[in-house]
Amino acid sequence: MKEELPNVMLPFVKDYFQANYYEVININSESVEQKDKLLLYQFRSLQELGKFVEANIFLKEKLKVVTDELIYKHLSLWKCFNEIFIQAFESFEIGLKEFEAVFAKFQQNDSQLLALYYGLKARLLELGISLGFLSSLQKTEAINLHNHSYEFYIKTNNFEEALLTKYRIVELHLKGPTSNKLESNKLLLQIITESEKIQFSYLLIKAKLKIAQLEFEEAANTETLDFNKVDNTYNAILEIAEAHKLDNGAANVFYELGTLLLEYGYANGINLLNKAIERYKILKEYTKIQQSWRNIARWHLQRGEEAENIKAEAEVNQLNEHISIQLSEQIEDLYKIFVAQKQGDAAYIYGFDDKSEQKNNSWIKNQRLTLKANTYISVGRQAEGIALMKEIISRYKTIGVTPFLSEALFNLSNVVVSDNTQEAIRFINEAIKIDEILEDYYALSQRYFQLASHLFFYNKPNFIFSSEIEDYFNKAEKYALSSHKVDFKLQLGNIYQTKGQLYGIINDYENAGKYLTQAEKIFDNYHLTPQLAFTLSQQGLVLLKVTREFKNPKTFDDAYERFSESANLFKSNSLNTSLWRTKFHQALCKYELAQNLPSNSEEFYQNLEQAEWHFKEAALLVDELRFVADNKTGIQRQLAVSDFGEDKQDLYLQAFYANFWMKKDYINAITWLERMKSQSFLLETSVEKIKIKRTKTYDDYKLLLQKYQAEEKASKKLLLKSKMEQLLSNLFNYSNIEKKTGYIEPIANFNLIKDLVKRAEEANGQQILIVQYFSVPTLTVAFGIRSDWEQPKIYRINLNYETLKNTVKTFFHKTEGVRNAESSTSENRFLEEFKEKKVWDISFEQNWQQFNSLITPINEWASTDDIVCLIPHGILHDLPLHTLKIQPNQYFIERNPIFYSPSLSILQQTLERKKTRNKKDKKAVFGNPTHDLPFATTEAEYIAEKINDAKLLLNEAASKDKFLELYPKSALLHFAGHGKAQASNGLEQYILLADKQKLTAKEIFEQKTSADLIVLSGCETGVNEYQTGDELFGMVRSILNSGAKSLLVSLWAVNDSSTSKLFTSFYDQYTVQNKAKALQMAMKTMISEGYGFYHWGAFVLVGKF
């Protein structure tokens, strides 16, 4: 910048704009007549540097000493303008009125003041439009105001400000609605002529750059781009900047051309942006440096170049400390909430919302509501999110035509489409009407694209590609073809890719191949690696579908080749979120090819081994992604990890089938079955990590894989592959938790459980059998595991799945409220109910006992009195398998002590938790908190007397606060009272304490305990909500997560009196037996006294026996 800049007032506007803003701030003037003008320029310099709040403070102080009346008026208008810009007023509307009020105070016949007023008001309209406070149609009013401003500047011979105003008109003409490029070009030529005449080089360069940009875009969009001409044009502008020593202008030349090149897919734009960055550094133009790095980061992100993107983003973040942009409190709050929403911190957003409401923060009301709505949707609160979205739309509709309204309608359509496709289509059509007015071709392409997709899936499962759908796709394609910018090309490629995918769904393989090939060409030409990799994967899926339909084994290889190409691209760009799925598809190719080969052939075994290899690679990638994404805590962490596993179940299922059916490898099948079960549950219940050597970490496996891929000699490749197979086998039984420290998490397998069971048997002097179930509509299998077996035993169960499903729905998952006041008012009432329940038992047994085959193999696998651990799967959860009959006249529980576990891995965790029973341990018994369960009082009093030093809390003493106080301190905690399951939201399951205060599973989840046993003697305390991945949500999950070794809970609504009897009997045995044996003895006592299993069968022991 100008080194010879004098330490006096700059006499002309053009010199101000051509100067370094930092230098202007530091100018001092001794001349009284120049001081007031200098204040004006220094204020504007603070604004140009982004120091908006500082500029406002500056004006508040300096206005007091301004002597020139005209400058005082100018600064007063600027001050009000600036206060609106930093959102110092309660709302935009109030700020605009204040601006008018300030102007009204002054005489309005001064041309200089009128020029400033019209110009600033036009800019305020532009601000209102950009923030969504004003309709985009008010652009015409803004242009008219700028025209008035221009006329008054000309009248006062202030040609520099007049030309700057004309340039703002150009920028408005280039935007929709009613964009006018012809008028813009005409005005730009006028600006260039006038700027040359008055030697206003700053604006001359801006105007020439704008014309160069328009010419470049026109040529690029019509495919007539001549780079020699482009170079000549920009070099000529650069010469003007250097001739006038305008370093900022020269840097802008590199920035503008570099940005344009990147926007149209030319990589040499990066070199030009780097040149711009070097020049901006000298000028301390940190904002421009940051924007340059942002453009570079976006380029790398589009191409999946993760390392380069991370480097560029780091540069962006480092510059924040140099950029002195000051934000108002409202904008800072909006920024914080945006970051919070990005991080999934819903609690912060809800808290912020209360704070924001108190502030009556109208400036960010719409943005805040939008973020809040998105957060509701992301955490599954659909109804609340949709209601907020509709409120936002109503607010924007009062404003008029604005892109914010279009975007809100578009977002809402995507949320409601699965439940109400017609409504979603209506919302998109409304958005389209707005975008047509705004002339937003990119948005129109998006809208028609989404509209076509919505209509296609609306017809599921009978998908059709109607002429209407085709018409919408054609419109989306037309708008995407309106520009050759990378964003438009990316959109066009996505349209072709989606059309190919949809044609594949309806088995139109010719069209599927055609459109996927078109997408491949676009993504390849523009080096859009993630999209290219995804398209190659889609081609593989189409080929795989063709192979399945036409039974042509050769096309398995073609599909596998496509998946391999896709995998290599995903891997080279570290796109593991897609790589795992491609590895899974590679596995399917080899697995299904093996199914078409003779089972005794070498090729059969080779393909199965390759399939297993790819299955394991995919599983390890899923593990890595799960724990990389695991940046939340508590409930939010659980929901995130659970959701993460939803689309991974097919991977585990197919790998299970490959081992179970094809390889007959039941040990490996059990390991894959474990991966289908309670992965996020396992993550929380693990307290201790197992540390292994770094040579067994996933990082080392990846390094070995890279060496294998790079090696050319066959003998060395064979050796490397052998090492990799061993390492993969070792790693497969673990999930990588913390790579930096080398800590890993065990996924239980056959041998691990055998060793653990052996130690438990030695400690208890009893044999243990583990029965793990696998149950889907087409197959139900029981796996038997014992410490003295070399292999697991299997038993295929002949089961009518639909009949079992109906039985579960009719009987077990049907609440018949019984532990309530009515069932406890008198013994006579109980006896009447007992008779009713006995009838219920008899009618039900005819249904329930038809499923005795579920426990048939246990007759052979376990002897009488062996301890049996049952691990249900799928529909078998929450069923009292211990109440089935193992002999015609003998319930299963009569023959064997029984306990349950959600999975082998959870079993491992609970069995390894050490005992804490000692004299110092606290015992707490809570009874009848609601005063309406007399037998619950009897139960609690008996248990407290039976257990030494137990603290008894009855009625109002059994408070929620006391429960939470004693929960972490107690080795034994017994609750006798009301409980209630919540089938649709397991974390809202609750027990009822004094004053009818609910203690939910969600609240218990956050607690910590080392209790040996937690008993919830109430209704439905063991009923769970089950999500994909065999994930439990409810009291069972929460209590085990909190650290308890075991718990006793109920599977249905129980009876007050019989429940009391069961537990008094249980505690008689508990002091001398293990928990499983004590529960068995208590149930046998009830059976011997004639009670039906409704009265004793609801309770199950989960965890450590």
Q: Can you describe this structure?
A:
- This is CHAT domain-containing protein.
- Residues 854-1104 form the CHAT domain.
- It comes from Emticicia aquatilis.
- InterPro entries: CHAT_dom (IPR024983), TPR-like_helical_dom_sf (IPR011990).
- This protein is α/β, with parallel strands linked by helices.
- Among the domains are: 201-326, Alpha Horseshoe (Serine Threonine Protein Phosphatase 5, Tetratricopeptide repeat), CATH 1.25.40; 800-866 and 873-1105, Rossmann fold, CATH 3.40.50.1460.
- Helices cover 62% and strands 8% of the residues.
- The protein contains 49 helices and 21 strands.
- The strands form six sheets. A six-stranded mixed sheet has the order 12-11-13-17-20-21, sandwiched between helices. The chain has a five-stranded mixed sheet with strand order 6-5-4-7-10.
- Strand 18 and strand 19 form a beta hairpin.
- The longest helix has 27 residues, at 602-628.
